[in-house]
Design goal:
There is one protein chain. With about 525 residues, the chain is α+β, with helices and mostly antiparallel strands. It has 20 helices and 16 strands. It has an 8-stranded mixed β-sheet with strand order 1-5-6-11-10-9-7-8, with helices on both faces. Helix 2 runs antiparallel to helix 10, helix 5 packs antiparallel against helix 6 and helix 6 packs antiparallel against helix 7 (about 135-150). The two termini are about 60 Å apart. Bound molecules: histidyl-adenosine monophosphate. Histidyl-adenosine monophosphate binds near residues 389, 394 and 411. The site of histidyl-adenosine monophosphate (HAM) has 24 residues, from strand 6, strand 10, strand 11 and helix 16.
């Protein structure tokens, strides 16, 4: 069989969106736009400015901030290399194993090969220059020359500590490259906002800096209703300045105002304080000790978490574990004085703002950067994935990423879930029909129709102009299907008389108008909201 025949017989492949991702289509996208527009408007009134962030960042940024042991970092991230760095990787590997053997002389040729490969990779744009910490390839080369210098000296002339210093430096260079070459599709945006705060020296702006963002995030989770691998968040962060409880309360007030404006139904705000670096470790130890006493009665997940992260046991939804969890010590009873005061003040500030909340001592959140205030908001119609918003305070995260000591608090709304809940409660539909369908017949009428469409669109009406002539009956049927409010009928008679027929499709009534009168009439009858 010739190649051509084989190609012809091959069944065309059907492509489908990857599981966990989806297309958002009209008319639903109109609702997404309305939600996003409302966020822009409400957040602006609270003094927030929009930040647009990259979709991918260095893997290390997420690993360090969200925490290497969390589900997100350990299981759910989409991580990839910049380019084909396989040769560099194999040299890297060989060099690393020689480093662990510690034989100085055998390291030098590998290090030389390594630098050559790095040079090549930089020339080909496979890795970006400078390396993290601003190290340039020239510095790497200079360092190699000094290594060669050492290598050429008789081994017994070298001081042991000099050798160790050199090996230490080589190791540091290796690590720089290791972290540089892996990127991850953002699973969330708080880490990126903190990175941007540091990178742009925002600590020198008036504090606090208030930023919001919206866009897709990526997590490799098991897809189900309200849980996707590409999902969308609308989030906000307040960075710098003080950790005054009024900031916590105002951030929460802002989300609640937003949900209120959208008429989201069944909104429930849960809050908690999970303490600080002082008091939380003591509570975690106490919890671990208590959990050990009941280990046999717990499921395998919780048993494992006693070791890795006992706080996460409190998240368990397993029916059989509920009575056990209910008897565990509660974090609120073990907060240090400062944290207890802060928590009490946050509650007071919420009350002052008329924000209704429920205290939930089991609300610990799944990301490592949180401290003190944590909160979650649920809404109706979402089944098991009913959290539409999660957030909390993360003082110290900016510092952990190499910036100055900085206070921080924020939240992220799951936009997919928000939309789902609005649709379930009937708040979803946004009108999508056309205002005017132009039914034209005849060449002269087409020219008039094109001009009419232009004028109507300029006046803000949505207009459907059929590309080819249709019989009036068919045109009116089409107008109906598209949900048009009016059909503008343009035939030879209308054009020569200068009187256009406008038919109201809801009741079939029709009237004749001159061109300027028609625009006037339509303007007057257009409801404000459409
Ligand atoms: P998070 O709790 O991981 O927090 O996510 C926030 C919200 O994003 C969740 O409540 C949920 O509505 C939505 N979400 C998360 N994963 C998925 C998914 N796979 N499919 C659909 N929706 C999802 C954060 O991301 C933090 N960065 C929030 C934050 C900002 N904390 C402080 N500042």
């Amino acid at each position: 069989m010739s190649e051509g025949t084989a190609k012809k017989e091959e069944k065309p492949r059907k492509f489908q969106a990857i599981r966990g991702t989806r297309d958002l289509l009209p008319p639903e996208t109109a609702l997404w736009n309305r939600v996003e527009q409302t966020a822009h408007e409400i957040f602006m009134t609270f003094g927030f400015g929009e930040i647009r962030l990259p979709i991918f960042e260095q893997t290390e940024l997420f690993a360090r901030s969200i925490g290497a042991e969390t589900d997100v970092v350990s299981k759910e991230m989409y991580t990839f290399g910049e380019q084909d760095l396989s040769r560099l990787n194999s040299i890297h590997h060989a060099l690393s194993s020689r480093l662990s053997e510690g034989s100085y002389l055998s390291i030098i040729p590998w290090f030389e090969a390594f630098v050559r490969e790095v040079e090549f990779a930089i020339k080909e744009d496979h890795i970006l220059q400078p390396l993290p910490n601003g190290v340039t390839i020239e510095e790497l080369r200079k360092f190699l020359a000094s290594c060669m210098d050492y290598a050429n000296r008789p081994i017994n002339e070298l001081e042991e500590n000099e050798k160790e210093r050199q090996i230490g430096l080589i190791r540091a260079y290796l690590q720089l490259l290791e972290t540089e070459k892996l990127f991850t599709l953002r699973p969330e945006a708080t880490a990126s906002v903190c990175r941007a705060y540091i990178e742009h020296g925002m600590q020198s702006l008036p504090q606090p800096v208030k930023l919001y963002y919206m866009g897709p995030m990526f997590r490799r989770e098991r897809p189900q209703k309200g849980r996707y691998r590409q999902f969308y968040q609308i989030g906000a962060e307040v960075l710098g300045g003080s950790d005054a409880p009024a900031i916590d309360a105002e951030v929460i007030e802002m989300v609640m105002t937003f949900f209120d404006r959208l008429e989201l139904q069944g909104v429930q705000l849960d809050i908690n304080s999970i303490g600080c670096r002082e008091c939380r470790p003591k509570y975690v130890e106490l919890l671990r000790a208590e959990l050990f006493k009941v280990k046999d009665k717990l499921g395998p997940d919780s048993q494992r978490r006693i070791e890795t992260n006992p706080l996460r046991v409190l998240d368990s939804k397993l029916e059989s574990e509920q009575p056990i969890i209910a008897k565990l010590p509660r974090v609120a009873d073990h907060l240090c004085e400062d944290c207890a005061k802060h928590y009490a003040a946050v509650k007071h500030q919420l009350e002052m703002r008329g924000v209704l909340y429920r205290e939930n001592w089991r609300l610990v959140r799944g990301l490592d950067y949180y401290m003190r205030t944590t909160f979650e908001i649920t809404a109706q119609g979402l089944g098991s994935q009913n959290a539409v918003c999660g957030g909390g305070r993360y003082d110290g995260l900016v510092e952990l990423l190499g910036g100055p000591p900085t206070k921080g608090i924020g939240f992220a709304i799951g936009e997919d879930r928000l939309i789902l809940s609005l649709q379930e409660s009937g708040k979803g539909p946004v009108q999508q029909g056309r205002d005017v369908y132009i039914a034209w017949m005849g060449e002269r009428a087409q020219a008039t129709a094109v001009r009419a469409a232009k004028d109507l669109r300029k006046a803000g009406f949505s207009v459907e102009l059929p590309p080819v002539e249709q019989k009036f009956g068919k045109a009116l049927g089409q107008a109906d299907k598209l949900g048009a409010k009016y059909a503008l009928i343009l035939g030879d008679n209308e054009v020569s008389e200068g009187l256009w027929t406008l038919k109201k499709l809801a009741d079939g009534s029709q009237a004749k108008f001159t061109e300027p009168d028609l625009l006037d009439h339509l303007r007057k009858s257009k409801p404000v909201s459409s």
